[in-house]
Specification:
alpha+beta; four-stranded mixed β-sheet; globular
Amino acid sequence: MNGFIFYRGKSPIDNAPLIGIATLTSDNRKTGNMVQTWILREDISPTMARSIGEDRSFCGDCSVRDACYVNWGQAPASIFRAYHRGGYIDLRRKPSMMRRIVSGR
């Protein structure tokens, strides 16, 4: 398992559909063995959301939005595509399993 879905619902900011994905593996030597979480729009790609201002659904009114270091075309886009291919197991109703998976990481 490369990751799992921990949230699927509406943005508290604008009611847009969001997904929450936790990924468990990474090639990033700087971060190592840590769980990375991603909050993304479910209905449009991260790059599209960013380019048309719909990233507000998950970024809110962040003061550094225009200087954000996130490269939306890399990892976030990959996570979005994997989600739409069915690449993540849905554990929203299995909190004890989620805890077991992330424990000690």
